[in-house]
Amino acid sequence: MEAQTGSYKVKVGLAQMLKGGVIMDVVTPEQAKIAEDAGAVAVMALERVPADIRKQGGVARMSDPELILKIMDAVSIPVMAKVRIGHFVEAQILEALGVDYIDESEVLTPADEEHHIDKHNFKVPFVCGARNLGEALRRIAEGAAMIRTKGEAGTGDVVEAVRHARAVLGEIRRLQTMAEEELYTYAKEIGAPLDLVREVKELGRLPVVNFAAGGIATPADAALMMQLGMDGIFVGSGIFKSEDPPKRAAAIVKAVTHYNDPAILAEVSKGLGEPMRGQQAADLPAEARLAGRGW
Amino acid sequence: MVVRRSPFAIAMPAPNLLPPEKVPAPRGNFAVGVLALQGSFWEHEVMLRKIGVAVREVRRPADLDGLAGLIIPGGESTTIGKLAVDFGLLEPLRTFGRTHAIWGTCAGAIFLSKDARREQPLLGLMEITVERNAFGRQVASFEVDIPVPALKTVAPDDERPFHAVFIRAPLIETVTPPAEVLARLEDGRIVAARQGHLLATAFHPELTADTRFHRYFLHLAGWGTDR
User: Fold this and answer.
1) DSSP-assigned beta bridge partners for residue B159
2) Residue B7: its pLDDT value, please?
3) What is the pLDDT of residue A273?
4) How big is the A-B interface in CB pairs under 8 Å?
5) In sequence order, what DSSP letters do the residues of A85-114 get, joined into one string?
6) Taking 70 as the threshold, does the pLDDT of residue B74 lie above it?
7) CA distance B67 to chain A (A)
Protein backbone atom coordinates (compact mmCIF):
# COMPACT_ATOMS: atom_id res chain seq x y z
CA MET A 1 0.00 0.00 0.00
CA GLU A 2 1.20 3.46 -0.93
CA ALA A 3 1.47 5.98 1.89
CA GLN A 4 -1.62 8.18 1.82
CA THR A 5 -1.54 11.82 2.95
CA GLY A 6 -4.43 14.20 3.56
CA SER A 7 -6.92 11.40 4.27
CA TYR A 8 -9.97 12.11 6.40
CA LYS A 9 -8.52 9.79 9.05
CA VAL A 10 -5.31 11.80 9.51
CA LYS A 11 -7.32 15.05 9.48
CA VAL A 12 -9.62 13.89 12.28
CA GLY A 13 -6.64 12.13 13.87
CA LEU A 14 -4.74 15.36 14.54
CA ALA A 15 -7.80 16.75 16.33
CA GLN A 16 -7.93 13.53 18.37
CA MET A 17 -4.36 14.24 19.50
CA LEU A 18 -5.41 17.75 20.62
CA LYS A 19 -8.18 16.43 22.89
CA GLY A 20 -7.97 17.31 26.55
CA GLY A 21 -5.86 20.29 25.59
CA VAL A 22 -5.99 24.06 25.22
CA ILE A 23 -5.53 25.94 21.93
CA MET A 24 -4.55 29.57 22.46
CA ASP A 25 -4.88 32.68 20.27
CA VAL A 26 -1.53 34.45 19.80
CA VAL A 27 -0.59 37.55 17.82
CA THR A 28 3.24 37.44 18.05
CA PRO A 29 5.96 34.74 18.09
CA GLU A 30 6.70 35.75 21.71
CA GLN A 31 3.11 35.04 22.73
CA ALA A 32 3.28 31.73 20.87
CA LYS A 33 6.32 30.76 22.92
CA ILE A 34 4.53 31.74 26.15
CA ALA A 35 1.56 29.59 25.11
CA GLU A 36 3.79 26.60 24.29
CA ASP A 37 5.68 26.93 27.59
CA ALA A 38 2.36 27.07 29.44
CA GLY A 39 1.37 23.72 27.91
CA ALA A 40 -0.87 24.74 25.00
CA VAL A 41 -1.45 21.87 22.52
CA ALA A 42 -1.62 24.31 19.59
CA VAL A 43 -1.73 28.02 18.87
CA MET A 44 -4.04 30.05 16.64
CA ALA A 45 -1.92 32.63 14.78
CA LEU A 46 -3.74 35.95 14.36
CA GLU A 47 -3.05 39.63 13.74
CA ARG A 48 -5.69 40.70 16.25
CA VAL A 49 -7.47 38.74 18.95
CA PRO A 50 -11.29 38.79 18.68
CA ALA A 51 -11.62 41.41 21.47
CA ASP A 52 -9.57 43.86 19.35
CA ILE A 53 -11.38 42.93 16.14
CA ARG A 54 -14.56 43.87 17.97
CA LYS A 55 -13.15 47.14 19.26
CA GLN A 56 -11.41 48.29 16.08
CA GLY A 57 -14.05 47.18 13.58
CA GLY A 58 -13.33 47.21 9.84
CA VAL A 59 -12.97 44.14 7.65
CA ALA A 60 -11.22 41.27 9.43
CA ARG A 61 -9.22 39.08 7.03
CA MET A 62 -6.69 36.24 7.03
CA SER A 63 -3.49 37.27 8.83
CA ASP A 64 -0.28 38.26 7.02
CA PRO A 65 1.54 35.06 5.96
CA GLU A 66 4.80 36.54 7.25
CA LEU A 67 3.39 36.70 10.78
CA ILE A 68 2.01 33.17 10.52
CA LEU A 69 5.40 31.84 9.31
CA LYS A 70 7.21 33.57 12.17
CA ILE A 71 4.85 31.96 14.64
CA MET A 72 5.32 28.56 12.94
CA ASP A 73 9.09 28.99 13.35
CA ALA A 74 8.78 29.96 17.01
CA VAL A 75 7.05 26.81 18.30
CA SER A 76 7.09 23.02 17.84
CA ILE A 77 3.35 22.56 18.51
CA PRO A 78 0.73 22.73 15.72
CA VAL A 79 -0.15 26.17 14.36
CA MET A 80 -3.68 27.02 13.24
CA ALA A 81 -4.85 30.10 11.36
CA LYS A 82 -8.20 31.59 10.41
CA VAL A 83 -9.79 32.21 7.03
CA ARG A 84 -13.01 34.06 6.25
CA ILE A 85 -16.12 31.92 5.77
CA GLY A 86 -16.23 30.87 2.11
CA HIS A 87 -12.82 32.34 1.23
CA PHE A 88 -11.24 29.27 -0.33
CA VAL A 89 -8.29 31.22 -1.73
CA GLU A 90 -7.24 32.34 1.73
CA ALA A 91 -7.42 28.64 2.61
CA GLN A 92 -5.24 27.72 -0.39
CA ILE A 93 -2.68 30.26 0.81
CA LEU A 94 -2.65 28.85 4.35
CA GLU A 95 -2.31 25.32 2.99
CA ALA A 96 0.65 26.46 0.87
CA LEU A 97 2.25 27.94 4.00
CA GLY A 98 1.99 24.55 5.72
CA VAL A 99 -0.38 25.62 8.49
CA ASP A 100 -1.51 22.56 10.49
CA TYR A 101 -5.23 23.39 10.83
CA ILE A 102 -7.48 26.03 9.27
CA ASP A 103 -10.31 27.66 11.22
CA GLU A 104 -13.03 28.79 8.82
CA SER A 105 -14.16 31.39 11.29
CA GLU A 106 -17.12 33.65 11.95
CA VAL A 107 -14.69 35.94 13.83
CA LEU A 108 -13.44 37.21 10.46
CA THR A 109 -15.72 39.07 8.06
CA PRO A 110 -17.50 36.47 5.86
CA ALA A 111 -16.47 36.37 2.18
CA ASP A 112 -19.53 34.40 1.09
CA GLU A 113 -22.97 34.75 2.62
CA GLU A 114 -24.32 31.49 1.20
CA HIS A 115 -21.53 28.95 0.91
CA HIS A 116 -18.77 27.65 3.10
CA ILE A 117 -15.50 26.29 1.72
CA ASP A 118 -15.59 22.79 0.20
CA LYS A 119 -13.11 21.45 2.69
CA HIS A 120 -12.77 18.04 1.01
CA ASN A 121 -10.60 19.74 -1.60
CA PHE A 122 -7.79 20.35 0.88
CA LYS A 123 -5.09 18.19 2.47
CA VAL A 124 -4.98 20.48 5.48
CA PRO A 125 -7.80 19.82 7.99
CA PHE A 126 -10.44 22.41 8.94
CA VAL A 127 -12.22 23.30 12.16
CA CYS A 128 -15.55 25.17 11.99
CA GLY A 129 -17.85 26.78 14.54
CA ALA A 130 -21.38 25.55 15.21
CA ARG A 131 -24.29 26.67 17.37
CA ASN A 132 -26.38 23.51 17.05
CA LEU A 133 -26.33 19.98 15.67
CA GLY A 134 -27.59 20.92 12.21
CA GLU A 135 -24.86 23.50 11.75
CA ALA A 136 -22.20 21.06 13.03
CA LEU A 137 -23.32 18.34 10.61
CA ARG A 138 -23.47 20.72 7.64
CA ARG A 139 -19.85 21.69 8.35
CA ILE A 140 -18.83 18.01 8.67
CA ALA A 141 -20.60 17.26 5.39
CA GLU A 142 -18.49 19.99 3.80
CA GLY A 143 -15.38 18.24 5.12
CA ALA A 144 -14.68 19.82 8.51
CA ALA A 145 -12.55 17.41 10.58
CA MET A 146 -13.18 19.18 13.88
CA ILE A 147 -16.04 21.24 15.33
CA ARG A 148 -16.06 23.94 17.99
CA THR A 149 -18.82 25.93 19.61
CA LYS A 150 -19.03 29.48 18.29
CA GLY A 151 -19.74 31.05 21.64
CA GLU A 152 -19.38 34.81 21.37
CA ALA A 153 -15.71 35.48 20.63
CA GLY A 154 -13.91 38.39 22.26
CA THR A 155 -16.44 38.91 25.05
CA GLY A 156 -14.92 36.90 27.89
CA ASP A 157 -18.51 35.83 28.61
CA VAL A 158 -18.91 32.05 28.55
CA VAL A 159 -22.71 32.07 28.31
CA GLU A 160 -22.94 31.65 24.52
CA ALA A 161 -20.40 28.79 24.49
CA VAL A 162 -22.51 27.05 27.13
CA ARG A 163 -25.65 27.66 25.07
CA HIS A 164 -24.07 26.15 21.95
CA ALA A 165 -22.53 23.18 23.78
CA ARG A 166 -25.85 22.40 25.45
CA ALA A 167 -27.65 22.74 22.12
CA VAL A 168 -25.36 20.29 20.28
CA LEU A 169 -25.08 17.76 23.12
CA GLY A 170 -28.77 17.99 24.04
CA GLU A 171 -29.83 17.45 20.44
CA ILE A 172 -27.58 14.38 20.25
CA ARG A 173 -29.23 13.00 23.39
CA ARG A 174 -32.70 13.59 21.94
CA LEU A 175 -31.67 12.05 18.63
CA GLN A 176 -30.73 8.82 20.38
CA THR A 177 -34.31 8.35 21.57
CA MET A 178 -35.80 8.83 18.10
CA ALA A 179 -37.27 6.02 16.00
CA GLU A 180 -35.72 5.28 12.62
CA GLU A 181 -38.74 6.68 10.74
CA GLU A 182 -38.43 10.00 12.60
CA LEU A 183 -34.89 10.60 11.34
CA TYR A 184 -35.96 11.69 7.82
CA THR A 185 -38.03 14.61 9.02
CA TYR A 186 -35.54 15.44 11.76
CA ALA A 187 -32.70 15.61 9.22
CA LYS A 188 -34.83 17.90 7.07
CA GLU A 189 -35.73 20.11 10.04
CA ILE A 190 -32.15 20.64 11.19
CA GLY A 191 -30.86 20.88 7.60
CA ALA A 192 -28.34 18.07 7.95
CA PRO A 193 -27.52 15.09 5.70
CA LEU A 194 -29.51 12.01 6.70
CA ASP A 195 -26.52 9.67 6.75
CA LEU A 196 -24.70 11.91 9.22
CA VAL A 197 -27.79 12.13 11.42
CA ARG A 198 -27.89 8.32 11.46
CA GLU A 199 -24.20 8.13 12.24
CA VAL A 200 -24.53 10.52 15.19
CA LYS A 201 -27.49 8.53 16.52
CA GLU A 202 -25.40 5.37 16.34
CA LEU A 203 -22.23 6.87 17.82
CA GLY A 204 -23.95 8.95 20.49
CA ARG A 205 -21.60 11.84 19.74
CA LEU A 206 -20.29 13.89 16.83
CA PRO A 207 -18.11 11.77 14.53
CA VAL A 208 -15.32 14.33 14.95
CA VAL A 209 -13.64 16.07 17.87
CA ASN A 210 -15.74 18.83 19.44
CA PHE A 211 -14.04 21.74 21.26
CA ALA A 212 -15.47 24.67 23.20
CA ALA A 213 -14.70 28.22 22.05
CA GLY A 214 -15.91 31.78 22.35
CA GLY A 215 -15.79 33.57 25.70
CA ILE A 216 -13.72 31.25 27.89
CA ALA A 217 -11.66 33.39 30.30
CA THR A 218 -10.95 31.42 33.50
CA PRO A 219 -9.88 27.92 34.57
CA ALA A 220 -13.41 27.44 35.92
CA ASP A 221 -14.90 28.37 32.53
CA ALA A 222 -12.66 25.78 30.86
CA ALA A 223 -13.54 23.04 33.37
CA LEU A 224 -17.24 23.92 33.00
CA MET A 225 -17.07 23.29 29.26
CA MET A 226 -15.17 20.02 29.81
CA GLN A 227 -17.72 18.81 32.37
CA LEU A 228 -20.51 19.62 29.93
CA GLY A 229 -18.86 17.13 27.56
CA MET A 230 -16.52 19.09 25.29
CA ASP A 231 -13.28 17.43 24.11
CA GLY A 232 -11.00 20.44 24.67
CA ILE A 233 -10.83 24.22 24.78
CA PHE A 234 -9.98 27.21 22.59
CA VAL A 235 -9.06 30.36 24.50
CA GLY A 236 -8.98 33.50 22.40
CA SER A 237 -8.72 36.89 24.01
CA GLY A 238 -9.02 35.38 27.52
CA ILE A 239 -5.30 34.83 28.00
CA PHE A 240 -3.41 37.71 26.45
CA LYS A 241 -6.05 40.27 27.48
CA SER A 242 -5.60 39.29 31.14
CA GLU A 243 -3.17 40.72 33.68
CA ASP A 244 -0.77 37.74 33.88
CA PRO A 245 -0.96 35.71 30.65
CA PRO A 246 1.70 33.02 31.40
CA LYS A 247 0.14 32.21 34.76
CA ARG A 248 -3.44 32.20 33.47
CA ALA A 249 -2.47 30.10 30.44
CA ALA A 250 -0.80 27.44 32.62
CA ALA A 251 -3.76 27.45 35.02
CA ILE A 252 -6.27 26.86 32.22
CA VAL A 253 -4.14 23.97 30.87
CA LYS A 254 -4.16 22.32 34.31
CA ALA A 255 -7.89 22.95 34.72
CA VAL A 256 -8.63 21.12 31.45
CA THR A 257 -6.64 18.03 32.53
CA HIS A 258 -8.15 17.97 36.04
CA TYR A 259 -11.59 19.31 35.07
CA ASN A 260 -13.30 16.85 37.41
CA ASP A 261 -11.19 17.61 40.48
CA PRO A 262 -12.53 20.68 42.36
CA ALA A 263 -9.58 20.71 44.80
CA ILE A 264 -7.10 21.12 41.94
CA LEU A 265 -9.40 23.63 40.22
CA ALA A 266 -9.43 25.71 43.43
CA GLU A 267 -5.64 25.53 43.65
CA VAL A 268 -4.96 26.59 40.07
CA SER A 269 -7.55 29.41 40.21
CA LYS A 270 -5.67 31.22 42.99
CA GLY A 271 -3.92 34.55 42.44
CA LEU A 272 -4.13 34.72 38.65
CA GLY A 273 -4.49 38.52 38.56
CA GLU A 274 -7.28 40.32 36.73
CA PRO A 275 -9.06 38.31 34.03
CA MET A 276 -9.90 40.11 30.78
CA ARG A 277 -12.47 42.76 31.58
CA GLY A 278 -14.90 41.46 29.00
CA GLN A 279 -18.32 42.46 27.89
CA GLN A 280 -21.66 40.80 28.63
CA ALA A 281 -22.76 38.95 25.50
CA ALA A 282 -26.38 39.87 26.29
CA ASP A 283 -25.54 43.58 25.93
CA LEU A 284 -24.33 43.18 22.35
CA PRO A 285 -26.66 44.52 19.66
CA ALA A 286 -27.60 41.95 17.02
CA GLU A 287 -25.23 43.43 14.41
CA ALA A 288 -22.26 43.08 16.80
CA ARG A 289 -22.81 39.36 17.34
CA LEU A 290 -20.39 37.13 15.47
CA ALA A 291 -22.11 33.79 16.13
CA GLY A 292 -24.86 34.51 13.60
CA ARG A 293 -22.33 34.38 10.76
CA GLY A 294 -22.34 31.00 9.02
CA TRP A 295 -25.11 29.24 7.16
CA MET B 1 -14.47 -0.88 6.00
CA VAL B 2 -17.41 1.33 6.87
CA VAL B 3 -20.60 0.42 5.02
CA ARG B 4 -21.83 3.53 3.23
CA ARG B 5 -25.60 3.64 3.36
CA SER B 6 -25.95 6.69 1.24
CA PRO B 7 -24.11 7.79 -1.87
CA PHE B 8 -23.78 11.15 -0.12
CA ALA B 9 -22.03 9.70 2.90
CA ILE B 10 -18.84 11.59 3.42
CA ALA B 11 -17.75 11.51 7.00
CA MET B 12 -16.36 8.36 8.51
CA PRO B 13 -16.53 7.87 12.26
CA ALA B 14 -13.18 8.56 13.79
CA PRO B 15 -12.25 5.20 15.26
CA ASN B 16 -12.75 4.88 18.98
CA LEU B 17 -14.43 8.25 19.46
CA LEU B 18 -17.26 6.81 21.53
CA PRO B 19 -19.13 8.13 24.58
CA PRO B 20 -18.69 6.16 27.85
CA GLU B 21 -22.05 4.42 27.64
CA LYS B 22 -21.03 2.77 24.35
CA VAL B 23 -17.83 1.28 25.74
CA PRO B 24 -17.98 -2.32 27.04
CA ALA B 25 -17.56 -2.72 30.79
CA PRO B 26 -14.20 -4.21 31.82
CA ARG B 27 -13.71 -7.68 33.28
CA GLY B 28 -11.24 -9.16 35.76
CA ASN B 29 -8.67 -7.90 38.27
CA PHE B 30 -5.87 -7.29 35.83
CA ALA B 31 -5.83 -3.57 35.11
CA VAL B 32 -3.65 -1.27 33.05
CA GLY B 33 -3.50 2.50 33.16
CA VAL B 34 -3.64 5.15 30.49
CA LEU B 35 -1.86 8.41 31.24
CA ALA B 36 -4.78 10.84 30.95
CA LEU B 37 -3.04 14.22 31.09
CA GLN B 38 -3.84 15.10 27.47
CA GLY B 39 -4.26 13.45 24.07
CA SER B 40 -5.77 10.22 22.75
CA PHE B 41 -6.18 8.46 26.11
CA TRP B 42 -9.86 7.74 25.53
CA GLU B 43 -9.12 5.93 22.25
CA HIS B 44 -6.66 3.64 24.07
CA GLU B 45 -9.26 2.94 26.76
CA VAL B 46 -11.81 1.94 24.13
CA MET B 47 -9.29 -0.47 22.55
CA LEU B 48 -8.38 -2.05 25.89
CA ARG B 49 -12.01 -2.47 26.93
CA LYS B 50 -12.84 -4.03 23.57
CA ILE B 51 -10.21 -6.64 24.42
CA GLY B 52 -11.83 -7.04 27.85
CA VAL B 53 -9.23 -5.45 30.12
CA ALA B 54 -9.96 -3.09 33.01
CA VAL B 55 -8.50 0.39 32.50
CA ARG B 56 -7.76 3.27 34.86
CA GLU B 57 -7.04 6.87 33.90
CA VAL B 58 -3.80 8.05 35.49
CA ARG B 59 -3.51 11.75 36.38
CA ARG B 60 -1.72 11.60 39.72
CA PRO B 61 1.03 9.38 41.16
CA ALA B 62 -1.38 7.43 43.42
CA ASP B 63 -3.34 6.35 40.33
CA LEU B 64 -0.44 4.04 39.38
CA ASP B 65 -0.93 1.77 42.42
CA GLY B 66 -1.72 -1.82 41.50
CA LEU B 67 -1.52 -1.38 37.73
CA ALA B 68 0.16 -4.03 35.57
CA GLY B 69 1.18 -1.55 32.88
CA LEU B 70 0.66 1.92 31.48
CA ILE B 71 0.01 3.44 28.07
CA ILE B 72 1.22 6.96 27.35
CA PRO B 73 -1.02 8.17 24.52
CA GLY B 74 -0.52 10.40 21.54
CA GLY B 75 -0.94 14.11 22.09
CA GLU B 76 1.49 16.98 22.38
CA SER B 77 4.67 15.77 24.07
CA THR B 78 5.47 19.26 25.41
CA THR B 79 2.04 19.48 27.08
CA ILE B 80 2.17 15.96 28.52
CA GLY B 81 5.73 16.55 29.77
CA LYS B 82 4.87 19.84 31.42
CA LEU B 83 1.78 18.43 33.16
CA ALA B 84 3.77 15.39 34.32
CA VAL B 85 6.31 17.74 35.91
CA ASP B 86 3.64 20.00 37.46
CA PHE B 87 1.79 17.11 39.07
CA GLY B 88 4.89 15.27 40.32
CA LEU B 89 4.59 12.31 37.95
CA LEU B 90 8.10 12.17 36.44
CA GLU B 91 9.84 10.15 39.17
CA PRO B 92 6.83 7.88 39.92
CA LEU B 93 6.60 7.08 36.19
CA ARG B 94 10.34 6.30 35.99
CA THR B 95 10.09 4.02 39.01
CA PHE B 96 6.98 2.32 37.59
CA GLY B 97 8.68 1.79 34.23
CA ARG B 98 11.67 0.00 35.75
CA THR B 99 9.43 -2.91 36.77
CA HIS B 100 6.25 -2.53 34.69
CA ALA B 101 5.29 -2.42 31.04
CA ILE B 102 4.91 1.03 29.49
CA TRP B 103 3.90 1.70 25.90
CA GLY B 104 4.20 5.14 24.38
CA THR B 105 2.45 6.03 21.11
CA CYS B 106 3.78 9.08 19.21
CA ALA B 107 4.05 11.74 21.94
CA GLY B 108 4.28 8.85 24.41
CA ALA B 109 7.22 7.39 22.48
CA ILE B 110 8.97 10.77 22.62
CA PHE B 111 8.30 10.91 26.37
CA LEU B 112 9.85 7.44 26.87
CA SER B 113 13.00 8.29 24.91
CA LYS B 114 16.26 9.50 26.37
CA ASP B 115 16.76 12.28 23.83
CA ALA B 116 14.39 14.29 21.62
CA ARG B 117 17.03 16.85 20.51
CA ARG B 118 15.14 19.57 22.32
CA GLU B 119 14.79 20.91 25.84
CA GLN B 120 11.66 19.22 27.20
CA PRO B 121 10.85 16.83 30.08
CA LEU B 122 11.45 13.17 29.14
CA LEU B 123 11.28 9.93 31.13
CA GLY B 124 14.51 8.69 29.52
CA LEU B 125 13.52 5.06 30.15
CA MET B 126 14.33 3.69 26.68
CA GLU B 127 17.66 3.63 24.86
CA ILE B 128 16.20 5.38 21.85
CA THR B 129 16.57 8.88 20.44
CA VAL B 130 13.77 10.49 18.49
CA GLU B 131 13.28 13.35 16.10
CA ARG B 132 10.01 15.21 16.66
CA ASN B 133 7.81 16.09 13.66
CA ALA B 134 10.28 14.19 11.51
CA PHE B 135 7.96 13.96 8.51
CA GLY B 136 7.02 17.63 8.51
CA ARG B 137 3.80 19.42 9.33
CA GLN B 138 0.21 18.13 9.30
CA VAL B 139 -0.15 18.14 5.48
CA ALA B 140 2.57 15.43 5.48
CA SER B 141 0.71 13.21 8.00
CA PHE B 142 -0.02 9.84 6.39
CA GLU B 143 -1.29 6.29 6.76
CA VAL B 144 0.48 3.21 5.41
CA ASP B 145 0.65 -0.57 5.92
CA ILE B 146 3.85 -1.83 7.55
CA PRO B 147 5.05 -5.32 8.49
CA VAL B 148 5.45 -5.92 12.24
CA PRO B 149 6.75 -9.48 12.68
CA ALA B 150 6.64 -9.24 16.51
CA LEU B 151 2.82 -9.19 16.41
CA LYS B 152 2.99 -12.91 15.56
CA THR B 153 3.56 -13.42 19.29
CA VAL B 154 -0.09 -12.58 19.95
CA ALA B 155 -1.59 -13.41 16.54
CA PRO B 156 0.35 -16.36 15.08
CA ASP B 157 -2.05 -16.93 12.18
CA ASP B 158 -2.55 -13.31 11.20
CA GLU B 159 -0.47 -12.48 8.11
CA ARG B 160 -1.81 -8.95 7.63
CA PRO B 161 0.53 -5.97 7.79
CA PHE B 162 -0.34 -3.36 10.44
CA HIS B 163 -2.16 -0.23 9.29
CA ALA B 164 -0.06 2.56 10.78
CA VAL B 165 -1.40 6.10 11.13
CA PHE B 166 1.31 8.77 11.40
CA ILE B 167 0.23 12.22 12.61
CA ARG B 168 2.91 14.90 12.80
CA ALA B 169 4.86 11.85 13.81
CA PRO B 170 8.34 11.47 15.26
CA LEU B 171 10.97 9.07 13.91
CA ILE B 172 13.07 6.82 16.07
CA GLU B 173 16.56 7.88 14.99
CA THR B 174 18.73 5.51 16.97
CA VAL B 175 18.03 2.29 18.86
CA THR B 176 20.80 1.16 21.22
CA PRO B 177 20.83 -2.27 22.95
CA PRO B 178 19.09 -3.46 25.01
CA ALA B 179 16.47 -1.67 22.91
CA GLU B 180 15.64 -3.36 19.60
CA VAL B 181 13.86 -2.38 16.40
CA LEU B 182 10.29 -3.71 16.01
CA ALA B 183 9.16 -2.06 12.78
CA ARG B 184 10.47 0.03 9.92
CA LEU B 185 8.99 1.91 7.00
CA GLU B 186 9.70 0.55 3.53
CA ASP B 187 12.70 2.91 3.26
CA GLY B 188 14.21 1.49 6.44
CA ARG B 189 13.41 4.30 8.86
CA ILE B 190 12.54 3.04 12.35
CA VAL B 191 9.00 3.56 13.64
CA ALA B 192 8.68 1.05 16.52
CA ALA B 193 11.06 -0.24 19.17
CA ARG B 194 11.02 -2.44 22.25
CA GLN B 195 13.25 -2.69 25.28
CA GLY B 196 12.17 -5.56 27.55
CA HIS B 197 8.72 -4.54 28.80
CA LEU B 198 8.94 -1.06 27.28
CA LEU B 199 7.39 -0.32 23.89
CA ALA B 200 7.50 2.74 21.63
CA THR B 201 5.59 3.36 18.40
CA ALA B 202 5.76 6.52 16.30
CA PHE B 203 2.25 5.78 14.99
CA HIS B 204 -1.22 5.40 16.51
CA PRO B 205 -2.69 1.88 16.82
CA GLU B 206 -5.43 3.52 18.95
CA LEU B 207 -6.82 5.15 15.79
CA THR B 208 -7.48 1.79 14.13
CA ALA B 209 -9.78 -1.15 14.84
CA ASP B 210 -6.84 -3.60 14.92
CA THR B 211 -6.18 -4.74 18.51
CA ARG B 212 -2.95 -6.66 17.82
CA PHE B 213 -0.59 -3.96 19.11
CA HIS B 214 -2.68 -3.54 22.26
CA ARG B 215 -2.64 -7.30 22.81
CA TYR B 216 1.13 -7.30 22.26
CA PHE B 217 1.48 -4.61 24.95
CA LEU B 218 -0.79 -6.60 27.30
CA HIS B 219 1.45 -9.62 26.67
CA LEU B 220 4.47 -7.53 27.80
CA ALA B 221 2.43 -6.46 30.85
CA GLY B 222 1.91 -10.11 31.79
CA TRP B 223 -1.71 -10.44 30.73
CA GLY B 224 -2.73 -14.02 30.16
CA THR B 225 -0.06 -15.40 32.47
CA ASP B 226 -2.04 -14.34 35.55
CA ARG B 227 -5.24 -16.14 34.56
Assistant:
1) none
2) 39
3) 95
4) 177
5) TT-HHHHHHHHHHT-SEEEEETTSPPS-SS
6) yes
7) 21
Of A107, A264, A263, give the one whose Cα is nearest residue A252: A264
pLDDT band at B12 (very low <50, low <70, confident <90, very high): low
Q: What is the DSSP string of A229-262?
A: T-S-EEESHHHHTSS-HHHHHHHHHHHHHTTT-H
CA distance B74 to chain A (A): 6
Q: Report chain A's mean pLDDT, rounded to a whole number.
A: 96
- How far CA A275 is from CA of A170, A207, B124, B188, in Å, comes to 30, 34, 38, 52
Give the DSSP letter of residue B115.
Answer: B
CB-based burial label for A93 (10 Å; 0-12, 13-18, 19+): middle
Question: What is the mean pLDDT of the segment spanning A109-136?
Answer: 97
Residue of chain A nearest B106, judged by CA positions = A17
Q: For each of the domains in chain B, give its residue range(s) and CATH number, in order of start.
A: 29-220 (3.40.50.880)
Judge whether residue B29 has pLDDT over 90: no
* Chain A contact set for B86 (CB, 8 A): 250, 254
**Pairing label, strands A209-211, A146-149:** parallel
Judging contacts by C-beta atoms under 8 Å, the chain A residues touching residue B78 are 36, 39, 76-77
Handedness of CA A17, A21, A26, A28 (dihedral sign): negative
* Cβ distance of A77 and B76 shorter than 8 Å: yes
- A150-192 pLDDT, tens digit each: 999 999 999 999 999 999 999 999 999 999 999 999 999 999 9
Helix (H, G, I), strand (E, B) or coil at A161: helix
- Are A195 and B4 inside 8 Å of each other by CB? yes
A188 phi and psi angles, rounded to 5 deg = -65, -45
Q: A226 near A258, Cβ under 8 Å?
A: no
8 Å CB contact of A196 and B11? yes
CB proximity B39 to A under 8 Å: yes
The yes/no answer to whether this complex scores an ipTM above 0.90 is yes
* Interface residue B82 vs chain A (CB under 8 A): yes
pLDDT reported for residue A183: 98
Neighbours of A282 (CB within 10 A): 10
pTM of the complete model: 0.95
- What mean pLDDT is predicted for residues B161-178? 97
